[in-house]
Amino acid sequence: MRNIIEPQPLDPDELWQILERRDPSFDGQFFFGVVTTGVYCRPSCACRRPLRKNVRFFREAQDAERAGLRPCLRCHPLAAIGQDPDSGRIRQVCEYIRAHAQEPLTLADMAAQAGLSRFHFQRTFKAIMGVTPRQFAEACRLDVLKVELRQQRSVTDAIFEAGFGSLSRVYEKVDTRLGMTPAEYRSGGDDVPISYVSVGSALGRMMIGATDRGLCFVQFAGSDAALLAQLRAEYPRARVQPMAEPYPEQFAAWMQALEQHVRGQQPRLDLPLDLRATAFQMKVWQYLQSIPYGSVQSYAEVAQGLGHPTAARAVARACATNRVALVIPCHRVIRGTGEMGGYRWGVERKRTLLDQERAAARGVAR
Ligand SMILES: [Zn+2]
């Protein structure tokens, strides 16, 4: 480790405090490496803070690399200085997968497109996109499938047209992605049972709705009646019913996680979702889930991150149609000017959430 260069004009104590605050305004200005893991990060990285004695500070990314450290796959330190070759590559592969959604793509094909080894490709893709290459390819295929289904083709034809090899495979996949089987989807999702509960929260009444596969509704309003109206408007043909007590164990656990999250006590929400969405919405929503607790991005940054730099408006629309507040943290997207921007459940709630996240993130670091 003889090549490690401590930045002279900067005080290590000061730098350490910036790490503890996960202050994103210092991203790109310096980097920190962890000698025990061999990885270097940007100051705002959401990773658990290492022991201070294992941390080294670097002025430049090259210095970290010269010291034998690799860029973190979680925070992509090189992207902070616009030099992340991986995110550009992955963006191109996404375009390729979308264009070839109806063909059987192997992981080897996709990795070759990226010019990366299979292992490195898989890891990098997941780190940047939040889903595996296979999941992404399936979402693209599902998108084709949904268009076919709406055109009133037979379900079987549509499935083969969309590039799925066999019926059982698509049912398996559709189960988790569309939340409904193709036949159900075609008929508009009649009769899907959704159970709901509403509770008081720091953000007003909160309603949680779920199918047997996951959460499909987390929203806020001033009253339970307004919430129920929102739920029915969102799922006009579903069979909506209050959750019977005692709540199923799984549902109770989801509720508890959400309640704690609203109180700032459980930063990480990793709950199963059951949502119907277009491939683009799905992509935006999954991307939003990768924005760390306590930080924000602009609509344009999200569009950029998705590889569609001109799609900032479409990103804003995808945020505005989010049906599961908090779990898909659309509140972490703000205007490029630093203004709050809109929020489906009122800008005051957005402000409250962001203030609380920042405060809690500081508290965790302390
Ligand atoms: Zn990192």
**How much is the radius of gyration in Å?**
22 Å
Counting DSSP E segments of at least 2 residues, the number of strands comes to: 10
Number of helices: 15
Q: What oligomerization state is this entry in? A: single chain
Domain count: the total is 4
The CATH C-level name of the largest domain is: Mainly Alpha
| Main sheet: strand order | 3-1-2-4
Major pleated sheet: 4 strands, mixed
- Quick check: average pLDDT? 80
Helix vs. strand class: alpha/beta
Ions, cofactors, ligands: which are bound?
zinc ion
**What is the CA-CA span between the terminal residues?**
28 Å
Low-confidence stretches: 1-8, 174-178
Q: H/E series, N to C?
A: HEEEHEHHHHHHHEEEHEHHEHHEH
Please indicate the percent range of residues in DSSP E strands (runs of 2 or more).
5-15%
What is the fourth-level CATH superfamily of the largest domain? Answer: Homeodomain-like
Overall 3D shape: globular
The helicity comes to 40-55%
Descriptive overview:
- With 366 residues, the protein is of the alpha/beta class.
- It has four domains: 70 residues, DNA Methylphosphotriester Repair Domain (3-Layer(aba) Sandwich), CATH 3.40.10; 104 residues, Homeodomain-like (Arc Repressor Mutant, subunit A); 70 residues, Methylated DNA-protein cysteine methyltransferase domain (Double Stranded RNA Binding Domain), CATH 3.30.160; 87 residues, Arc Repressor Mutant, subunit A.
- It has 15 helices and ten strands.
- A four-stranded mixed sheet has the order 3-1-2-4.
- Helix 4 packs across helix 5, helix 6 packs across helix 7 and helix 13 packs across helix 14.
- The longest helix is centred in the C-terminal third of the chain and has 19 residues.
- The two termini are 28 Å apart.
- The N terminus is likely disordered.
- Bound molecules: zinc ion.
- Zinc ion binds next to loops.
